[in-house]
Design goal:
This protein has 149 residues and is α+β, with helices and mostly antiparallel strands. The protein is built from four helices and nine strands.
């Protein structure tokens, strides 16, 4: 597997770099660049499983919980994952997340008020520091407070 998470197949001095694809209802790798008789080679299940485990481990190395901010309605502090996680990992923590929608004002996306539990289940480090768009959110929160006076 290369740095981009793709499989590297070598045949002599030639090399093919590809993701696993579904071809004729089987898992396969595009090896056109190797100049073989067929453009794809089938991937055995044990190779696919090992590849997916390695790819998921690589993804999880860069996953962090970050602050999403405080709810404008409840004042609760919310956190979110900085990127998508493999389905197996998401299934372990989905119950700790709440869907906040994608439109309108305030917090959006899948958020949690239980970052410690998510952090422990996924073995993550909690990332501290500024949240996304913090300056814009602070200005909006200040405007809401001013309106409430």
């Amino acid at each position: 597997m290369n740095e981009d998470g793709q499989i590297v197949v070598k045949c002599g001095k030639k090399e093919a770099v590809a993701d696993i694809e579904d071809v004729e209802n089987r898992k396969a790798i595009n090896v056109v660049s190797l100049g073989l008789e067929f453009p794809y080679i089938e991937v055995p299940p044990e190779v696919e499983n090992a590849f997916m485990k390695a790819k998921n481990r690589k993804i999880m190395e860069s996953v962090r919980l970050i602050s999403a901010g405080k709810s404008l309605l409840s004042g609760k502090e919310y956190h979110k994952l900085n990127q998508s996680v493999p389905l197996e990992e998401w299934d372990c923590v989905k119950s700790y997340f709440e869907w906040m929608g994608t439109g309108g004002s305030g917090l959006q996306g899948w958020l949690t008020t239980q970052p410690e539990k998510v952090q422990k289940l996924l073995s993550l480090k909690l990332t501290e520091g500024k949240r996304e768009h913090e300056d814009d959110i602070k200005q909006f929160e200040d405007a809401i407070i001013t309106l409430g006076k």
